[in-house]
Structure prediction request, 1116 residues.
Amino acid sequence: MKKLLSILMVVSMLFAFVGCGQENVAVENTVDQTEEQTEKEAEVETEEQVVNIYTDRHYDSDQVLYDTFTEETGIKVNVVKAKSDELLERLKIEGEETEADLVVTSDVGRLFRAQSEGLIKPFTSERIKTNVPENLRSTEDYWTALTVRARILAYAKDRVNPEDLTTYEALTEPEWAGKVVIRSSSNIYNQSLMASFIALNGEEAAKEWAEGIVNNMARTPEGNDRDQMKAVVGGVGDVAIVNTYYVGKLLNSSDEYEVEVGKQIGVFFPNQETNGTHINISGAGLTAHGKNSENAENLVEFLTSEKAQSDYASVNYEYPVNQSVEPSELLKSWGEFNTQDIDLSLLGKYNADAVRLMNEVGWK
Amino acid sequence: MKILKGHGPLFLVSTVIVLLILLPTLTLISELFSPIGENWEHIKEFLLKEYILNTVILVLATGLITGVIGTYLSWMLSHYDFNYNKLLYIILFLPMAIPPYIAGYVYGGIFNYGGTLERLFMKWDLTPIRLDMLSMSGAVFVFSVFLMPYVILVTKSFFSRLPASYFESSNLLGKNASETFLRIILPLSRGAIIGGVVLVMLEVLNDYGLVKYFGIPTFSTAIYTTWFGLGDISSAIRLASILMLIVVLILSSEHALRGRKRISLSRANSKSYTRKKASKPSRITFYIVYTLYVTAGLLIPLMQLSSWSLMALDNVNVEGLIHTFKDTVIMATIVTILVLFCGIFIGNFNRLVKTKISKAYARVVVIGYSIPASIIAVAVMMFFITLDRNFSWIYKSLSLKSNFLMGSLMMLIFALTIRFMAIGFNSIESGFNKMGNKYYEASTLLGKSSIQTFIKVDFPLLRPALLSAAILTFVDVLKELPLTLILRPFNYDTLATKVFVYAGDEMIHEASIYALMIIGLSTVSLIFMQFILKERKNAKN
Amino acid sequence: MLKINDISFKYQGAKDLTLNNVSAFVEHGEILAVVGPSGGGKSTFLRVVSGLESPKHGKILIDGKDVTTLRPEKRNIGMLFQDYALFPHLTVEKNIAYGLRGHHIGKKSRVKEMLKLVDMEGYEKRYPYELSGGQQQRVALARALAPEPKILLLDEPFSNLDTELLSSIRHELFEIVRKLKMTTIMVTHNKMDAEYADDVIKIIDGKVDQA
Prediction:
């Protein structure tokens, strides 16, 4: 008897637990909750307002912004964090049944993919259009940038004269043999960089560049952007290609070793005389089948407004998209720079080609 | 069908369970017949060779190292007398509580630029030695150390059942210890050693976290990237099928290598056999190897993780930690209970009704363990989508959400149960084998029904087997990463996924706290199991 | 020929001595039976003589040579274990040849000789699991005798056999031993076996019973 009872208990526990899973976090920590909720209850009109985000961004500062949003509007923000790729796959599989209202990625290629696979729908909000300049939004407003980051050359201050640096292409010259460190081709930031070269210079030139980089690599790619900079300071190579905010992170790390590394790194914006430094964005799009799209748009309006943008700028070492907001002191110290003048969607459009070409030249 | 008389319900439930296990696999196979994804040609030409090469090297190298060193360590401890034998043994297999991906983060972090080793050297004003840990050899090292316990467990159990008289008679016939080991012990233990090594190989094939972190392209990372990165499920499935081929190859070689001859050992002597102390050089060698192993597999990871955790102590979100802890334990418990439940049913069915069907069922159950997690994930997900679609009318009438199954924990629990069924089942099956049918038969002759018999007679006798099955399953679910990563629902994290995400975000300090929780829980469970089982052994004698 | 002087032995962790000042003497070619109740120390006595256990005190002398500290593999003593301990993965032939050193051809002829001795000719390629209990015992005996040991130790040789065949097997075994003039120590709890022996000692509670 005992065993059967325990089995029954477990099975009912299962259903109860599953039922709880449906309600997500909302059951536990809403303060404004007024109505009772049974486990089988479906959506009711008087239910509290929520917006559910699928996001790739993993910064604590984001949560602060969401909380501020909730305070101001009463709309609860539920967050699911995972890698963009997983999130997109889930969206695809969930189809119409998805719970997500907004998808936030840390690179534009994913947004492009989401758009081409019909996973996101356009914004209607005028405020977003005023907050964010045109080149940082998709044509037809399927997505908008939230922050901007540049992929720059990080060089060893004690060994490299910045006057010797010019372009991404120059790094393929013989004098840089064995001195370049860069992370794996499996990383989306490199893929987008490559895609930008395909868009600007054509496939052949892009492939040549990739090949040249591979030939000049100080070691087979390993680690992330911060590891590349640590390697440069450690003497493995002289210059690395990394995203700007990682430099900021090093300089402000709680680990004093990392701060040291950051201090010995110089930041150089390549291609200023030619076609500009590569930029990428962290951005958001409304899910095609989201149930709270209006709330989602409110949130994006908030995130692109001055208040939120200055937070992004000061706390996270990213460049704001809202032109009325200035970047942080650190970023300002690096100076202004020309960016690549291309339709950002192309970074997504050429992603598959970028991956293919990098595989072909053996960029691990 | 006559044989099944009286066991109707048992047969029914077992069939249902087996079908549930098979269906996802069938869904997967059906996908194979869909058109080739656009990436497949590209993958075949540029990447496939590397995947195969890397995977094969990892598997073979790890298998070799764990086979040799694991057998050595377990033989020495079984056969010779060392001080604190029991303690030495327990410590020996504790590295099992540390999943390979956590070990990878530890060693990656130590040997990284700016890692612990470099900083130590700088503190002592020396030029640091650089070891490239994030490489193939590094991965083989980590896998070998932390998967070694599998070999040790399996071989130790075999060695302890080996009659002492084999060794002794070989001695008296003029052969010394090493000759005896090579000519008698090794051939006889071949099956056990290979069994242990195969377990290790399957674990290597299943891993995702470590190879991802170390940047080694293997099948598991490829399946993941192709599926999620390129959005190409059909190519991912093709990769999965090739992986399955490798698994099948390994399993069939195991069968072949175990030998066609049925070697039945004579029943062990109950006479007391004193373990001798090993000769001095043997002892020294043993202690050196043992110490190196324990240092690498236990001391270094624990010290590093603790020191990192201390650094993150201020930042840690205690509420979140407790919440995740609770979620993890609940899920592991549910899966464990389900695994036991299914294992008991099918195990019982198999022992009472010895037909081809029941034997086949027993085989199917074990499949889950050999199928790498990424494949199970794909199969289960597709399966559940189909279910959700077909059941939509039921959902409407019960006013449930339309993705009731998919959006819930059920999918993950289902997949985990499939994957870990084998562990529970093996323990339970051997428990049933030890018992035999005589108690059951006696009880039914005395007029008790099947259920009564099970509750009053079988279950109590099965308790030790159930206990080890439960604990092993529980610990494995705790450590599980790839399945959980892919199939977890909205807003759901386990300790393992947290570790992975933090480590991936270069927040290794925060990750360490969660890692230590996993290790702590596992260690306590494993020690508890050892303790209880020893108690029972002593009580019996 | 075999002198056992004042052997004392204790198993690790045991409270009392398993063997307490046990002495015995076996002439060349004689059979010594060691009888006594179960757990009294008979088998331990055998294990000490063979070298599988080392005594705390006492000496063992074979033909005047002190072998007390000599490892078992060097003592040239043959032993028939209670469970026969035939190596399951080796054929009958390979089992018997196991203790032999030297050339392949020399081994082969010796094996043939032994098989003839125990009346198991034709069984060379069989495996132990294919043999009956009595047959296994014969092979085990052949294996022990093949390397021409100085001393043969029998550990309860008949306890695992069917009573039906018992008397014929017993008869055969002793015939072989006598034929080879093997110096033998036999541990048994069966008085009938003891009657075949030339001398008997009784070990009770680790001591030789003088009665």
Remarks:
- Chain C has a mean pLDDT of 87.
- DSSP finds six helices and ten strands in chain C.
- Residues 75 and 186 of chain C are 18 Å apart (CA to CA).
- The radius of gyration of chain C is 17 Å.
